[in-house]
Amino acid sequence: MGELVFSTPADGVIDVVIDRPPDNLLTVGLCAELTELLLSPPPGTHVLRLRAAGEVFCLGRERAGNTPAELRAETRTLVSLHRALRDTPLVTVAEVNGDAAGFGVGVLAACDVAVAVSGASLWFPEVGIDLAPALVLAWLPRIVGERHAFWLTATGEAITAARAMELGLLNEVVSSQESLAKDVQARVDALRTRNPRIHGEIKDMLRAFRPLDEDQALELSVDRLVVGALRRGESATPTE
User: Of 88, 127, 211, 212, which residue is least crowded by CB atoms under 10 Å?
Assistant: First the structure.
């Protein structure tokens, strides 16, 4: 039976592998399991590296609910995972080894860093089963804009990894699986050299600033910078 495989944390890094080939579909149970890890990580863990077994990253999730109550509970679990990826104190890095579709795109897009191999395609298939992807539309326009979000979800058109990077869904695209592993490892190593508390504060500020206009964000930044400087024991006026 397929599962999520968690490594023992080492040097502040935990590897999570989606091991449900060939499609690596996430179940409600696996989503709940990953959510729990993200919100209550092992002590000392700093970076979570998410990858997949086989030739695809994740082609979505298994649909199990039929009644209104079951469908609502299932959707709540998906929303909880999306929020956990956003709110976790860990830095999350997605190693996208192949195609991603639907909720699978949502998972990689919610990670802090996402790198894909050039042969990967990304798409939203829900329109093909006569379903408007409400959960996707809650986050996708914030990254790619409403015009692109409409086209991608209204047609189900697959886009290349290079195009996904242009739209802001990926940080980088590399040429091969070997290059992918090396690139992700280099990024993980670079993150590990920095203070995990500062990474947590950066993530918190991004969340706090997101709904604000520029003036409101700048005003809030004053308080955040003062708190940060005092925490470092600085007495001089910051130069940022």
Answer: 211
